[in-house]
Design goal:
The complex is a heterodimer. By secondary structure, chain A is mostly helical. Chain A has one domain (4-200). Chain A has helices at 4-30, 42-71, 80-102, 107-116, 118-135, 139-145, 147-153, 155-170, 176-200. Chain B has one domain: Oxidoreductase, molybdopterin-binding domain (Sulfite Oxidase, Chain A, domain 2). In chain B, the strands form 2 sheets. In chain B, strands 1, 4, 5, 8, 9, 10, 12 and 13 form an 8-stranded mixed beta sheet that branches. Chain B has a 5-stranded mixed beta sheet with strand order 3-2-11-6-7. In chain B, a hairpin with a 5-residue loop joins strand 2 and strand 3. Classes of the chains: A mainly alpha, B alpha+beta. Chain A binds chain B through residues 30-32, 35, 37, 39-44, 46, 101-104, 106, 109, 112-113, 117-119, 169-170, 172-174, 176, and chain B through 2, 5, 15-17, 73, 76-77, 80-81, 85, 89, 91-92, 142, 144, 187, 189-190, 260-261, 279-281, 283-284, 286, 288-289, 291-296.
Chain lengths: 216, 322
């Protein structure tokens, strides 16, 4: 197991750079560095890429706890906040791209779209729900909220499903990709459910099993 | 600079990224040369002599009456960003996955309510028809649009030769079925082969054309080579590609997107800013090639061809017949 210093000095900075790569690649392509570009429809490319990475980062964040359990790697938890905050950044940038580049801040179209188009409503709702999680991600907020912090942050289970639903609903015909996301989410959420069930059923909760950690 | 994409007509501002990579155009040229070698040369006077350098060039006249004055999108944009689900569902998939497709030799089976049925070689089908350039708007149902200089012949002229009977109320079209060359057909994203249809008065409208080329050259595979339908007042998905069958019918024929999602895609699929797609607005569209900012334009009734085609739909509730 890596020491706390290694996690803080090596893993975290490395992860930070890694998480920035999708965004950096968009910037490179927007400025056409190295002969790359965003293609014929750059707005759509930016919006799709940011949305995809928002969803991927949410799933990666959600994967931290199961991975810790499966590989007995408690240090992974130290990376979770950064992953979650990046997820929020990508989702927020995805939304801002829609607002500014896709809709040109055309409020007469934006407001009815949020209200009336279910896939946009769902996406917007997911962003709204994700916002308090990002705000309360600091140490100070964690201390202040105490036990309620954990309850609040369980919202991510709902948010991830809303995000996948949002994706599924805007696809025209080929739903394979959103269904892959759904499968991954169901495995990650299913693992948590299975752990809770194991803990609650006295028949299986025998004394030789190590007591489970407080779950998140 | 990041924001400004050069205007398509503005040749002084062509950037390196707009120029087709050599490997791509060499490949395209090889295919086109092969196409010519296999007998497209027999197309009559419409096709230029196969000169080695410009083998794919077509001989045509601009039809000014039916051409926009707007500058067309770049060849690069038109051939790298489009929907052709037979080659994959991403907008870049048709260009990436259509290299193995063989557009020649080609023939079209004509059947149904007409006197002259049979299978016609593409060159026979086009014989005697002068190729025209038509600069049309193309509006995708996904709310993006382009301006495209097609080369083709009026559909009405071609259909007339088969002598449709009085029972011919509709025309049905079918795309070729070749999963070995069209990887998208290996997945049931839509029901294959792709089918489309028009009412006979729509099909014989002077705006409807069968396109064989683009920017003065034969159609690249990704844009529906060697023969596709263009109905500029309708959403792009009506423009069925790589046509192998034309059938005159008495009843309204089934159409692929309507089969896939009947509440979202109707038989008519006329561009209409007042009738939204159930999941998104059709009031505005993104004009491809305008860069990052301010790329949306208002969508026009019948895609700007209202004057020409509105009469076809007089008295029809376009909210019901979307």
């Amino acid at each position: 197991m890596p020491s706390a210093t290694v996690v803080r000095r090596v893993f975290k900075p490395a992860l930070f750079v890694l998480c920035l790569l999708p965004l950096a690649s968009l910037v490179w392509r927007a400025f056409e560095i190295g002969g790359t570009n965003l293609g014929a429809n750059p707005v759509e490319k930016i919006q799709d890429t940011l949305g995809q990475w928002g969803l991927r980062m949410l799933l990666i964040t959600l994967a931290v706890t199961p991975l810790r359990d499966w590989f007995n790697a408690p240090w992974l938890i130290q990376l979770r906040r950064m992953l979650g905050v990046f997820a929020y950044c990508y989702v927020l940038l995805h939304f801002l791209t829609w607002l500014i580049l896709d809709q040109d801040l055309y409020w007469a179209g934006i407001v009815p779209d949020i209200a009336r188009r279910p896939f946009i409503t769902i996406g917007f709702l997911a962003l709204l729900l994700l916002t308090p999680l990002a705000i309360t991600s600091t140490n100070g907020m964690m201390r202040r909220l105490g036990r309620r912090w954990k309850t609040l942050h369980r919202l991510i289970y709902v948010i991830v499903l809303l995000g996948i639903w949002h994706y599924y609903w805007q696809v025209k015909a080929d739903v394979r990709e959103p269904l892959i996301y759904l499968a991954v989410a169901l495995v990650l959420l299913g693992w948590r459910l299975w752990k809770v069930r194991r803990r609650l059923l006295p028949l299986h909760g025998s004394a030789d099993r190590p007591k489970l950690r407080e779950e998140t | 600079m990041l924001i400004r994409r050069s205007r398509p007509g503005d040749s002084a501002a062509i950037r390196p990224s707009e120029i087709t990579p050599e490997s791509v155009y060499l490949n395209r040229r090889r295919l086109l040369q092969a196409a010519l070698a296999v007998g497209v040369a027999g197309l009559g006077g419409a096709w230029a002599e196969p000169a080695p350098a410009e083998a794919a060039a077509l001989e045509y006249k601009r039809n000014d009456k039916y051409s926009l004055s707007e500058a067309p999108n770049s060849y690069e944009d038109i051939t790298s960003y489009n929907n052709y689900y037979e080659f994959g569902v991403d907008k870049g998939a048709p260009a990436a996955n259509s290299g193995r497709f063989k557009p020649a030799p080609w023939s079209v089976a004509v059947s149904g309510e007409c006197e002259d049925k049979g299978t016609f070689a593409l060159e026979d089908l086009l014989k005697g028809h002068a190729l025209e350039e038509r600069i049309y708007r193309l509006r995708c149902v996904e709310a993006w649009s382009m301006v495209i200089p097609w080369i083709g012949v009026p559909l009405a002229d071609v259909l007339k030769r088969f002598k449709p009977t009085s029972k011919a109320k509709y025309v049905a079209f079918k795309t070729v079925m070749r999963p070995a060359e069209m990887p998208g057909q290996r997945y049931p994203v839509l029901e294959w082969p792709y089918v489309e249809g028009l009412r006979i008065d729509e099909a014989t409208h002077p705006l409807a054309i069968l396109a064989v080329g683009l920017y003065g050259k034969t159609l690249p595979n990704q844009n529906g080579a060697p023969l596709r339908l263009i109905t500029p007042w309708k959403y792009g998905f009506k423009g069925i590609k790589s046509i192998v069958e034309i059938r005159f019918t008495e009843r309204q024929p089934p159409t692929s997107w309507n089969i896939s999602a009947p509440h979202e895609y109707g038989f008519y699929a006329n561009v209409n800013p007042n009738v939204d797609h159930p999941r998104w607005s059709q009031a505005r569209e993104r004009r491809i090639g305008r860069g990052l900012f301010d790329s949306r334009v208002q969508t026009l009734m019948f895609n700007g061809y209202e004057k020409e085609v509105a009469g076809l739909y007089k008295g029809m509730d376009l909210k019901k017949f979307y």
